[in-house]
Amino acid sequence: MHELSLAEGIRDIVEETATMEAATRVRRIVLEIGALAAVDADALRFCLDEVLSDSIAEGAEVDVIDVPGRGRCRQCGTLAPIDERHTPCPSCGAYGLEVLEGDRMRVQAVELE
Amino acid sequence: MCGVCGCGGSEARIGSVFGGDRNKRVQRAGTGTTQAWRAIDTRRPAASPAGLDHESTNRASVARLQRVERDILGKNERIAAANRNWLAERRILALNLMSSPGSGKTSLLVRALETLGGRLPAAVIEGDQQTEFDAERIRATGVPALQINTGKGCHLDADMVARALPRLPLAERGLLLIENVGNLVCPAAFDLGEAHKVVILSVTEGEDKPLKYPDMFAAADLMLLNKADLLPYLSFDVERAIEYARRVNPRLEVILTSATRGDGIDAWLAWIERERASA
User: Fold this and answer.
1) Which of A19, A56, B129, B235 has its CA 20 to 30 A from that of B143?
2) Which of A12, A38, A67 minimises the CB distance to B75?
3) CA dist B176 to B120, B144, B216, B264, B273, Å?
4) Choosing among A30, A45, A73, A92, which should be mutated to test the B contact, i.e. which has the most B CBs within 10 A?
5) Tens digit of pLDDT for each residue in A35-88?
6) A-contacting residues of B 171-200, CB under 8 Å?
7) What's this model's pTM, rounded to 2 decimal places?
8) Contact A2 B189 (CB under 8 A)
9) For residue range B77-109, what is the model confidence (pLDDT) as tens digits?
10) In whole angstroms, what is the distance from residue A35 CA to residue B231 CA?
11) Does ipTM exceed 0.95?
């Protein structure tokens, strides 16, 4: 359940942004979540509902943009999509592709009033 | 009503009760803007904030979209970087030990610290949800230990370690062993500022754990395959476990250990000595 910690991290970022922008309300939060980021987006939404209550972002819509995993084979250099950490290289079959994209989580944007 | 815990609510947002494909779940869960889950091609970021979502253009007169682009774990990573600097200045080697509950982390630590016999200044941070039991077991070896109780928290984070560091008697060029909360999932995501993550897998757990819980094994530099003394009584396939772990992380080093019998403890201490020399 580290989704709760992540939800608190999101709330802090959203609150800081809202304060900096002198907003009165946060209507929408746009998140980017990598396929390899080890987070369950459903659980994260559940936790966000909880931690955003009584905040400036209470009731905000949460949009999640899925970022697919992408990597490079350390053996032959082939670029390939990665669904799971143990996805083998489609060209040479080597395991342990270097992850280039899809292992991060970001707050991409917020919609403010 | 929420299908997970039964709490009230007008939206069926927690999709896990439906199972299967997420897009299908969303369709089933109903319509409305809060259910808008869309995958977009992130290799071509939207040129304008309004391009993110057609709905926002309709509301542009009353609301504005503010770009943020900040990592959710950014705060933890900043604190972890500060911890790493603090440790590097003192040339202290810090290891973050992670495993599922009951793999023998504390027993391995106790055995290693006893074998070390004070040849190297060491200190231990123990992470558990409740109790001081583990710290007491470490202190019995004569090594200082600080217990962090995370309450409901399922992992240690960099801030907890930052608060613990100044309270520990840490010698220059010493060793700091951080025993994370027993959990094969969450601790992998939280950098503490350690030099290396060490994952402990016990042979009673099944050799497919590295594929089932890959993030932990992907993040680690060393795997201690513990409870080796029990191998004669189990059908555990050591070679397969190592092969699975290296599918996730080809660079993973592996030492077969037994906290009870002492197997591999010298090899682990030699690994520590090697890493300490380069710390």
Assistant:
1) B129
2) A12
3) 10, 10, 20, 20, 13
4) A30
5) 999 888 889 999 999 999 999 999 999 999 999 999 999 999 999 999 988 999
6) 185-186, 188-190
7) 0.81
8) yes
9) 999 999 999 999 999 999 999 999 999 999 999
10) 36
11) no
